[in-house]
Amino acid sequence: MKVVFMGTPEFAVPTLKKIYENKYDIPLVITQPDRPKGRGKKLASPPVKVEAERLGIKVFQPEKVNKKEAIELLESISPDVIVVVAYGQILKEEILQLPKYGCINVHASLLPYYRGAAPINWAIINGEKKTGITTMYMDRGLDTGDMILKREVLIGENETAGQLHDRLKEIGAELLVETLRYIEKGQIKRIPQDNSIATYAPILNKSIGKINWEKTADRIHNLVRGLNPWPCAYFEYNDMKVKVFMTEVCKEIKEGNIGQVVKVDNEGIYVSTAKDCLVIKELQFPNKKRMRVSEYLKGNEFPTGIILK
């Protein structure tokens, strides 16, 4: 089977590797162009490009994949299937209809829940207990195509988006290869999505991370987990934005006004919320390294009684 692969970030890399390891013919990998990155703004290759070049696969990086040049290249290859994993561009109908077996997408949720750009993050932010991977046929909608296979996983009580991402990227790779095998055998059953129960996972931005201490400790804890490692939850202290990477909920301490620091020790900074205390255990001040509160307190103080914003 001839497979063209489209993908860009680290999440897509295991799927490309797994397709290659299973001896599928991959004549082309399409990924986003190199972009400036870091403080030096040097051009950096997408993780998928790095992996494709390591495997010796031809790479194509169009600014817009729906342009004539890209479509003609795909037509010349005549792929049996196009696999799309977090590519980052919407495919128009001409490309969707081009492969013999269609375009197959690997999506990091149990569709039709959490369609969109950030399903891993929003599942955690919203306090979901489970999520998973869905493979599906792509259509013109946003993650609305017929489903093929699903794999469900439980979300750990303290699991971060980064940790869940790393689990799901491997599961996605396995499920995609399983999907390709079903396609080869002609055993695919298309399962339409129920649009009436669909939910969405919009793209993240830094403003989402501002902690609202009027919410419960559970909800803030979920926000912190869901935005770790990016864009990070944060609070304001002495006109600084302090990023928060790790927290836990403390139900024993009841006193304190909303947002008030009621206790500080090596276990963390205890902040009163609408319900229970949130214990900040790992943070990062501007232009400083990320550290545990116990490490921070070795050379610094954090006052009790103040109200965090």
From TrEMBL:
One of its GO terms (molecular function) is methionyl-tRNA formyltransferase activity. The keyword Glycoprotein does not apply. It comes from the Bacteria. The keyword Protein biosynthesis applies. One of its GO terms (cellular component) is cytosol. Gene3D superfamilies: 3.40.50.12230. Residues 205-300 form the Formyl transferase C-terminal domain. It catalyses: L-methionyl-tRNA(fMet) + (6R)-10-formyltetrahydrofolate = N-formyl-L-methionyl-tRNA(fMet) + (6S)-5,6,7,8-tetrahydrofolate + H(+). InterPro entries: Fmt (IPR005794), Formyl_trans_C (IPR005793), Formyl_transf_N (IPR002376), Formyl_transf_N_sf (IPR036477), Formyl_transferase-like_C_sf (IPR011034), Met-tRNA-FMT_C (IPR044135), Met-tRNA-FMT_N (IPR041711). Residues 1-180 form the Formyl transferase N-terminal domain. (6S)-5,6,7,8-tetrahydrofolate binds at S109, L110, L111, P112. Its EC number is 2.1.2.9. Pfam families: Formyl_trans_C, Formyl_trans_N. Keywords: Protein biosynthesis, Transferase. NCBIfam families: fmt. Belongs to the Fmt family. Attaches a formyl group to the free amino group of methionyl-tRNA(fMet). The formyl group appears to play a dual role in the initiator identity of N-formylmethionyl-tRNA by promoting its recognition by IF2 and preventing the misappropriation of this tRNA by the elongation apparatus. This is Methionyl-tRNA formyltransferase. It comes from Caloranaerobacter azorensis DSM 13643.
